[in-house]
Design goal:
This protein has 420 residues and is mainly alpha-helical. The protein contains 16 helices and seven strands. The chain has a three-stranded antiparallel beta sheet, with no helix packed on it. Strands 1-2 form a two-stranded antiparallel sheet.
Length: 420
């Protein structure tokens, strides 16, 4: 440990001073009083190291020195990162975001093998160790039903998921730092920033998840029959209907289908959950209900009128609803012998691809239809009243592609019958 952290009048100095008579020629200290004092300091450092457990192995000599200096500074109180992180998580209103952060913290606790950690221990080295840990086959204990503990084995995670977990840790670290550091204070309580030494892995480019119009027609025309006899709700039929409902409604997400509560004058209006909290317009969008979608709306209408659809009565939350849809779509993929495994997002991607490549709708207009942020136009948007007709016209063009293909198929079948 260098003396650089003891500064007096601009000069580097130690807290203890010895003169010529207190040392021998080999520069070893012979003064017992000084030896006792320095021994106490070293023993204090050793106690901190003992308390570190396995985290000690992740530190370089320089990082360990800096950590010992920081932990020995009794003028600053210890801050339990785990405790503070969970306090922040409790303030998050959206359940799915709370669940996401809780999942991240579960894996973090698996790694540190403790239920508390001083924020000074959250270093670049610790984050690198956590990153490596997430990429291994590992075990973790979770709360099961009736309060029992269940041990699970977790598979190695890819870059995208590691990116998600590490971004959550960064968010929580920043929130704790914001809580304890004040711009008015001369000296910040939390002075280090581990993400300056650790780089979160990049997310790989989104895989294109679009279907050709004729494949969408195959999904639409999947016959009504009992595919899942053991379930009260046939997930395959539900999945087929939800896929088409999303496609007909300009790629609406499952969470918004679950929560939407406004259906007036032939329009469905909602705030897109994914971006609602990040946008000044609260990500509002209004979709005209075209004739194709009316049978599906009527089929799943909520009779209590608490929400537009009855899904909140069928499933306990949005995640369960989305999980059921994707399980059903997996079955749809199998029945139709598709080369890919369908997920709900294929409906949204397919709508956008058909809009651009077949209907030649501009990318800016497609972005508005998908309710993406307008970016640099946020200020301009304040002065412009929303006109939903552009979205209505674009959606009609996309749906007409299916109509055209359907007519062509019917005519082709009629010609075949005539020849026969």
């Amino acid at each position: 440990i260098k003396t650089k952290h003891f500064v007096h009048k601009g000069q580097l100095t130690t807290k203890r001073v010895v003169h010529k008579g207190q040392i021998v020629k080999s520069l070893e200290i012979k003064d017992n009083f000084i030896l006792k004092k320095t021994t106490l300091i070293i023993e204090g450092y050793q106690k901190i190291i003992d308390d570190m457990g396995s985290q000690y192995d992740t530190f370089t000599a320089r990082q360990l020195a800096d950590y010992l200096i920081a932990m020995s500074d009794t003028s600053k109180s210890k801050i339990d990162f785990i405790k503070e992180a969970y306090l922040h998580i409790k303030t998050i209103t959206k359940k799915r975001y709370r669940d996401s952060f809780n999942t991240t913290m579960n894996h973090f606790l698996d790694y540190i093998k403790d239920d508390n950690i001083d924020i000074k221990q959250v270093t670049g080295s610790l984050l690198q160790g956590f990153d490596r840990f997430l990429r291994t086959t590992r075990k973790g204990t979770r709360n099961g039903r009736k309060g029992t503990k269940v041990e699970y084995t977790f598979n190695p995670l890819p870059d995208d998921t590691v990116h998600h977990y590490m971004s959550d840790i960064r968010t929580l670290f920043n929130e704790v730092k914001k809580q304890y550091n004040s711009e008015d204070e001369e000296e910040a309580v939390i002075t280090h920033y581990p993400f300056a030494k650790y780089e979160i892995p990049q997310v790989s480019p989104t895989k294109k998840r679009n279907l050709k119009a004729d494949v969408i027609l195959k999904i639409l025309n999947l016959p009504d029959k009992n595919y899942n006899k053991n379930h009260g709700t046939d997930r395959t039929i539900l999945a087929r209907d939800m896929f088409m409902l999303s496609f007909y409604l300009v790629g609406i997400n499952s969470v918004d289908l679950y929560n939407i509560d406004t259906y007036e004058e032939g329009r469905l209006t909602y705030n897109r959950t994914k971006t609602e909290s990040r946008r000044k317009d609260q990500a509002e969008i209004s979709i005209k209900v075209e004739p194709e979608v009316i049978p599906l709306i009527n089929k799943y209408l909520d009779p209590t009128k608490e929400r537009v659809f009855i899904f909140h009565k069928m499933y306990c939350d949005e995640q369960s609803f989305n999980k059921a849809i994707n399980k059903g779509l997996k079955k749809v993929s199998s029945i139709l012998d598709l080369a890919i495994t369908l997920t709900f997002y294929y409906a949204r991607h397919s709508w956008a691809t058909i809009a651009r490549n077949i209907c030649k709708i501009s990318k800016d207009d497609i972005g508005e239809c998908l309710n993406h942020s307008s970016g640099n136009h946020d200020v301009t948007d304040i002065y412009i009243e929303r006109d939903w007709s552009m979205i209505d016209n674009a959606n009609r063009k996309v749906l007409d592609v299916l109509v055209t293909i359907t007519i062509e198929l019917i005519l082709k079948l009629e010609e075949t019958d005539v020849v026969a």
